[in-house]
């Protein structure tokens, strides 16, 4: 089965723009319609681990009128991993759909 | 804004991160928590509420710490996948366990129902098993119980003489010869039981005495708690001042565990004995189900046995014996040695008073050896079969309960289908999901089993209390041992598989593609989706029919026995046992004191009539004789015998059918007379006219033949117990007894409650002589005590039968409600297309009826088989009693239809528009 799908979710979310932790958690929950939910003990360790691998990069950012927050952004390595995982995922979903879809037709 | 930092630092502290790193993590998490808090506040939550919700995101301490510890471990590059394939199995199982606990906490309603169902089910099973274990499986608390072998006569038929105690296997002369002659055993022991009286006069105070041979404690390897126990030197024939050993419970109870008790004295049957020691706490004797208060050496029987001690008599059966096999000797070898010795032993101990027929039987006896590592027990013989049946009953109840849980979890599995689909899509393996769900079920059943242990403790105490009626004090060591614990744990795992496997497999079969589609279910529910649930419900119905039929059979058995006409009126009768031995009366004075005692008691206010009897009817005691007829003294059969005084029949509400009662004119100098019952006329006299006929009892060798003339006829009554068919009884006159005993039983009928007469009668008898010892029984209570087993079976089978019925009706209700909920759209369409409410009700009820019918048919077949195994416990009805089966089927069907009607009515009230709009 597919491993590392949770990583894929996070990599995809920080691809287009830098986001802070709670923002990521909220987006995942919102976009999955509430079925996927990351609490603090599951989200942050995952972020730290991705950071340690060098796939994402966290930086403290201070913007005028806002508090200092830690934003995560995709690194070059991360971008490559994301591309790989995306194509792998697409192939997987396509395969599943071919199987399941054929049964349903 | 709430203060998060202290809390976070405390949670992270055990990780011992570099200060800067910890600061960074705390900062970031504070931001996150602040966001959550602000958001909740913005959507209207109170401050406290918002703080609680934010903190919830932290989950438990351990989880937070564990997760961060893994992430912060140097060089750790493993991906984290919720529900993904595990790297370290133990670690992921721990994850499953903690997740399982959270899942159970979230659904606390389901959890509470499941845990309490399991606790009751497992508890009931453990309780019965614990009792079964204590009674039949556990070894004796002595050294090397496996080498213990009981020594008794292999097939003892037609033994005659006096039998006393709980296990009257041998006479003392036989024991002496066996003990001297055998070589297969490294040691042989004998023991016997009596009740002995500790008071010097007035109301008796009976305690249980254990007679033991001098070899008893040394051979069994029992060591004293205090002082010393008997050795061979204490048990010599004609011993004069033997000591006395106390049991541990008696020492605690009577002497408050006084460690200075050795050397004190105790008066037993009027004789003073010195206490030499206390037996250990674990030791209750050789008979499971019995214990003792004090112990005397066998030789002391001659001291306290009164004027006719049992010890020297070759026809007094009162001892049991066991041997410890020598190493390398098998029980078979020992048995064949004993058989070889038998001829000589029985020849030299032959009672001189035996008739030729009795002597012939006696000389044919063969001694043998029977391995008995778990002791011997009359209790076991009586209760083993009923206890297995009860275990079967509680086992079935547990299966039914598990079926309900399985259905409950199946329903929840459907509700969690989306969760499973998402986890599968995110990369969880199916095996891991099955494991996760099984871990959840296992948690449930383990918590249930733990609670079950507590339930079992209470339940088994209640069970023993139910069994423990009146005088028959039952002692069962209910301490849990490894067998009970293993049984309970095994039940936990088994129940988990029973109710957890189906939902787990179902959930893992989830097709993510289908479920994740927004409305991933069709308008008519898939039939197979209810398949498992329907099989479960039909099974439940079948099994509960078995239990209900069983319960009805036992309840009707009890009813048959309690409403049975024993042939006499027991209500209002008090039996008073009077022991006159302390008066040391000469034979010639006894008839007179018997008369005075009876007169005095008859005069007590409230007593309507009084009489004497040797044997109290239906007390379990008996006395029978071979009857000889005609001038040639032809043996005509065996009759029960009772010796009663004038007024006995009146006291028991029995009328004399023809002839007369005993009168004051029947004396030792007038011709001997007898009154017989109708069965005596049928069986012994072959229907001849009884009045005027004479008969005799088979006399002992050398004794004269004593003829009795029949002067009266009474109706048949039960003699020993309620279950027997009434047989021949001959009543002979108390007043004509040649040698009256120094004790008697008085029976009084009163209009006041019998127990209220205990005080007045005790005082009246003290006026005759204060040294007499008296003891009382209310006859109806005494009879009720003989029905303990029947009452136990009826109560428990009734309770579990009702419980089983209730559980399966709940199961049926549940599956139908669930079906109605899942088929809302279908029902909506049907109604939109013109089906009326009745058609909808019929649709649902028909479904219920089909399940019910299948279950009832299978159940009736199973019940017929099961009932046969309980045949020996039934009374007054056949195991296949059609009325009982019909009643069981009808009762179950009625409640089941009611259970089906409720969801059906709910379906019929459905608004088709609402139902269709929802999906």
3D structure, described in words:
The complex is a heterodimer of chains A (105) and B (919). Chain A is of the alpha+beta class. Helices cover 63% and strands 15% of the residues of chain A. Chain A contains four helices and three strands, in the order αβααββα. In chain A, a hairpin with a 5-residue loop joins strand 2 and strand 3 (68-74). In chain A, helix 1 packs across helix 4. The radius of gyration of chain A is 16 Å and the shape is globular. With 919 residues, chain B is an alpha+beta fold. Chain B is built from 28 helices and 24 strands. In chain B, strands 1, 3, 5, 6, 7, 8, 9, 10, 12 and 13 form a ten-stranded mixed beta sheet that branches. In chain B, strand 16 (624-629) and strand 17 form a beta hairpin. The two termini of chain B are 43 Å apart. The chains are: A alpha+beta (105), B alpha+beta (919). At the A-B interface, helix 1, helix 2, helix 3 and helix 4 of A face helix 2, helix 4, helix 14 and helix 17 of B.
């Amino acid at each position: 089965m597919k491993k590392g799908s949770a990583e894929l979710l996070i990599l995809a979310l920080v691809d287009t723009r830098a986001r802070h932790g709670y923002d990521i958690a909220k987006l995942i929950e919102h976009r999955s319609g509430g079925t996927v939910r990351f609490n603090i003990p599951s989200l942050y360790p995952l972020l730290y681990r991705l950071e340690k691998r060098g796939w994402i990069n966290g930086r403290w950012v201070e913007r005028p009128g806002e508090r200092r927050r830690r934003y995560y952004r995709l690194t070059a390595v991360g971008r490559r991993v994301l591309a790989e995982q995306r194509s792998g995922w697409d192939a997987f979903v396509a395969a599943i759909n071919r199987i399941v879809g054929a049964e349903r037709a | 804004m709430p203060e998060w930092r202290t809390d976070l630092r405390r949670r992270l502290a055990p990780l011992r991160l570099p200060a800067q790193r910890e600061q960074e993590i705390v900062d970031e998490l504070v931001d996150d928590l602040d966001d959550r808090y602000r958001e909740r506040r913005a959507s209207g939550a109170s401050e406290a509420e918002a703080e609680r919700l934010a903190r919830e995101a932290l989950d438990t301490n351990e989880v937070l710490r564990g997760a961060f510890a893994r992430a912060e471990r140097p060089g750790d590059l493993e991906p984290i996948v919720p529900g993904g394939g595990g790297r370290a199995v133990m670690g992921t199982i721990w994850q499953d366990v903690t997740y399982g606990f959270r899942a159970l906490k979230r659904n606390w309603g389901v959890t509470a129902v499941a845990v309490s169902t399991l606790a009751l089910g497992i508890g009931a099973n453990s309780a019965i098993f614990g009792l079964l274990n204590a009674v039949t499986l556990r070894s004796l608390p002595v050294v090397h119980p496996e080498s213990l072998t009981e020594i008794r006569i292999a097939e003892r038929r037609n033994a005659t003489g006096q039998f006393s105690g709980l296990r009257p296997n041998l006479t003392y002369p036989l024991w002496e010869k066996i003990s001297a002659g055998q070589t297969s055993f490294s040691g042989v022991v004998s023991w016997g039981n009596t009740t002995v009286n500790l008071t010097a006069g007035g109301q008796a105070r009976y305690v249980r005495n254990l007679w033991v041979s001098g070899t008893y404690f040394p051979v069994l390897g029992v060591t004293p708690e205090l002082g010393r126990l008997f050795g061979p030197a204490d048990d010599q024939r004609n011993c004069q001042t033997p000591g006395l050993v106390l049991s541990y419970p008696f020492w605690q109870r009577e002497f408050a565990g006084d460690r200075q008790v050795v050397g004190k004295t105790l008066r037993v049957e009027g004789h003073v004995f010195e206490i030499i020691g206390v037996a250990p706490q674990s030791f209750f004797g050789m008979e499971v189900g019995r214990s003792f208060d004090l112990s005397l050496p066998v030789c002391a029987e001659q001291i306290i046995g009164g004027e006719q001690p049992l010890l020297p008599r070759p026809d007094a059966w009162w001892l049991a014996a066991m041997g410890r096999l020598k190493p390398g000797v098998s029980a078979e070898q020992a048995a064949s040695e004993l058989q070889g010795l038998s001829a000589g032993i029985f020849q030299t101990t032959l009672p001189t008073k035996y008739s030729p027929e009795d002597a012939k039987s006696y000389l044919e006896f063969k001694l043998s050896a029977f391995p008995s590592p778990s002791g011997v027990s009359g209790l076991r013989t009586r209760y083993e079969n009923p206890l297995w049946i009860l275990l079967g009953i509680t086992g079935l109840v547990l299966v039914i309960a598990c079926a309900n849980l399985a259905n409950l979890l199946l329903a929840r599995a459907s509700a969690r289908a989306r969760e499973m689909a998402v986890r599968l899509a995110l990369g969880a393996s199916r095996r891991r999901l099955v494991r996760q769900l099984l871990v959840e079920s296992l948690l449930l059943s383990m918590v249930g089993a733990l609670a079950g242990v507590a339930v079992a403790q209470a339940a088994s105490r209640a069970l023993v209390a139910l069994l423990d009626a009146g005088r028959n004090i039952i002692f069962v060591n209910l301490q849990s041992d490894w067998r009970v614990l293993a049984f309970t744990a095994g039940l936990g795992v088994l129940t988990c598989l029973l109710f957890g496997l189906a939902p787990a497999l179902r959930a893992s079969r989830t097709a993510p593609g289908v479920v994740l589609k927004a409305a991933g279910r069709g308008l008519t529910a898939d039939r197979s989706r209810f398949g498992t649930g329907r099989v479960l419900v039909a099974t439940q119905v079948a099994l509960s029919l078995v239990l209900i039929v069983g319960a009805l059979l036992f309840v009707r058995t009890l009813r048959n026995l309690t409403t049975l006409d024993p042939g006499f009126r027991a209500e209002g009768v008090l039996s008073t046992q009077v022991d006159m031995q302390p008066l040391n009366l000469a034979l010639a004075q006894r008839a007179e004191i018997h008369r005075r005692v009876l007169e005095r008691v008859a005069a007590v206010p409230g007593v309507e009539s009084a009489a004497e009897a040797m044997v109290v009817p239906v007390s379990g005691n008996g006395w029978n004789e071979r009857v000889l007829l005609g001038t040639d003294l032809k043996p005509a059969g065996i009759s029960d015998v009772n010796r009663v005084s004038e007024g006995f029949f009146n006291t028991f509400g029995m009328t004399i059918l023809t002839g007369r009662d005993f009168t004051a004119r029947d004396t030792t100098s007038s011709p001997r007379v007898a009154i017989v019952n109708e069965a005596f006329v049928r069986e012994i006299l072959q229907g001849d006219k009884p009045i005027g006929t004479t008969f005799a009892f088979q006399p002992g060798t050398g004794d004269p033949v004593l003829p009795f003339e029949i002067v009266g006829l009474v109706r048949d009554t039960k003699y020993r117990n309620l279950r027997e068919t009434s047989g021949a009884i001959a009543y002979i006159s108390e007043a004509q007894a040649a040698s009256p005993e120094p004790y008697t039983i008085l029976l009084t009928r009163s209009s006041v409650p019998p127990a209220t007469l205990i005080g007045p009668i005790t005082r009246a008898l003290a006026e005759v002589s204060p040294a007499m010892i008296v003891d009382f029984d209310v006859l109806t209570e005494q009879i009720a005590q003989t029905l303990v087993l029947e009452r136990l079976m009826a109560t428990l089978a009734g309770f579990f039968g009702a419980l089983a019925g209730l559980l399966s009706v709940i199961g049926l209700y549940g599956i139908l409600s669930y079906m109605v909920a899942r088929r809302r759209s279908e029902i909506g369409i049907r109604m939109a297309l013109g089906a009326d409410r009745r058609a909808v009700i019929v649709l649902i009820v028909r479904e219920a009826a089909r399940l019910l019918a299948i279950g009832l048919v299978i159940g009736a077949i199973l019940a017929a088989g099961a009932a046969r195994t309980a045949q020996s416990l039934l009374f007054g009805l056949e195991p296949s009693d059609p009325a009982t089966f019909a009643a069981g089927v009808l009762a179950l069907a009625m409640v089941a239809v009611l259970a089906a009607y409720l969801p059906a009515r709910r379906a019929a009230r459905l608004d088709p528009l609402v139902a269709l709009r929802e999906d």
